[in-house]
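Continued from yesterday's entry.
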Amino acid sequence: MAPAIPTPIRRWCRVVALCGGALLLGGAATPDLPDLIDRYEHFAEDYPMEAGRSDPSRARVGWPDETPAGMAGRKAELQRIAAALDALDDAALTDETRVDRAYLRQLIAWRVEGIDFDERRFAFVAHEGFYNTPYSLARGLTLRSEADARAWVERMRGIPRYFAEQRANLARGVASGWTHPAVVIDVGVAILRNQIAQPVAEDPMLEPLKPYPAIAAEAQRLIETDIRPAQREALAYIDGPYRAKARKELGIAAVPGGRAYYDFLLRYYTTTDLTAEQIHEMGLAEVRRIRAEMDKVIASTGFEGSFADWLRFLRTDPRFYATSREGLIEKYAAAAKRIDGVLPRYFSVLPRQPFTIVPVPRELEEGYTTARGGGGGDFEKGFAGTFVVNTSHLDQRPLYEVPALSLHEAAPGHHTHGALNNENKALPGFRRARDLLAFREGWALYAERLGHEMGVYRDAYETFGSLSTEMWRACRMVVDTGIHVMGWSYDRARQCFAENTALADINIDTELARYIGAPGGAVAYKVGELKIVELRRRAEQALGDRFDIRAFHDLILAQGQLPMTMLEAKVDAWIAAKR
């Protein structure tokens, strides 16, 4: 599944580090749009959660100030940038730069609204959280000099302070009634226990330091004396005082101001004004449509029995499961190469950047999703894209879903999109980021659907697997809104998946923990996909024989990312120009 559903935590990994006095908008010169974009992106790069990936020497900048005072400082600076954008002379802008301004202005509005909700009170959301941040940064880090290595160790020294600030954020949530339910806490506790249990000498934070043994030894001592105690303190707090105040209800609407917060998250994640009730009904309609398609596929196999019997057959027949971790990776690799062979028929612009397929690190397997595209990498800096696959619990990783997940996570889904974004230097950086779930995940779901045209699904089982993953996303629309607004129980939410998809039990439980911990994001996948499908049909109907599927796909991916309304305007303009 796509990079992970973005949460407030992941979203702040890309927001600007607007520290006091950093942006000087006063003075004689009035900033123009390129200047404001440059300033925004400069401070986005300086945000400590990202620094060190693109330039390892900057890893010494430390960790973000996510205290209430630090967030208030960001808000003030964001508002200054917004005011400067509003003051720009519209007549001096082109059609394209008006899009840039409108989108940047909208991004800032969302950031400010998130700060106003004090969403840092949720410092973790099941499988993602502050406890994973040092590890995710280490895995993306290549140190090219001893100075880089020392900078990374210096940054590691700040982890205890960063963890302490996150505990304070969680405590503020406890005091204000903003806590997670036990099902989310359980995942966070399991991850922390796994991190603490691993031998210090094998800690992934040491991996980038292997070429520098003396510095690595210093870092190992630091983990033993400072970082492990900080992790133990975090575990003790989350599994103790925090768990004692866990909210009893699953839905976010139960916390003070929770419904307003959920409505905001829907606007942010879908980039639309769709209400929870509208999204719920859209999801139910998609469930009915996909179920009818599933019934046709089952009938084509000659299978005799009920739908439940069919699902039981798929979940238990050993032919549908790999017998080794390596074997599962090989199945994904074979599917990816098969897809590569037909991509040029559907795309005239493809990235130079390759990708590799790797297993999810063992310490993260429990509670981790089935598969995840890790982004486009960076060809110029020597990084391949990564497609990570969960190779645990092989009896619950069905092979008939491999083609659909490969299309979604790798090519032409997340990897293709991310790599093209990296290579598209004509767009400003904020349009090449990966913030917008509706665009990013909508495209990846569209890529799964495209697999039918491409001939990727070779038999009825793989076709059903694709429908099962599509049904999974349709059920998300129903379940997310059902849990967070309509008061659904865990069993009712689980039943929606168990009765309509071939998802294994462990996958259902993993996904439900994500939806409960990170409200709203799960619905954006289908919202985005349905919009892209709608736009393609509009273009096909308007252009007839002049419709070029490769040109349409190139147009969508050339946008980097945009809210759905802005993407729609782009496609409408393209159609008008082609007539």
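--- second protein ---
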Amino acid sequence: MGTLIGFRSLCDGAIDTTTASGELIFNIFSSLAQFERRLIQERTKAGLDAARARGRSGGQKKVSSNNPKMLTAKRMHKNHGMSINDICKTLKISR
């Protein structure tokens, strides 16, 4: 097969995967971490589904093309050749 690599905790010595019991503990911790990740995913999805059922939607709201800052930004870019970053800093808006 080949050389196996083990993990040995130097600080507290609680985990040593070169032994059967250490490997078991390591696998238990790994399984618990995976379980927790999936639980968080399920809860997040359930929360988003519940919010959608109440009529809520996520993300930023769309900016109207008639917005005064949007029109000013377009003019600054077209007439003055300003970069998008400079325009955003000047108008104090996000990109």
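DSSP finds three helices and no strands in the chain. The chain has two domains: 1-59, 61-95. Will compare against the first tomorrow.
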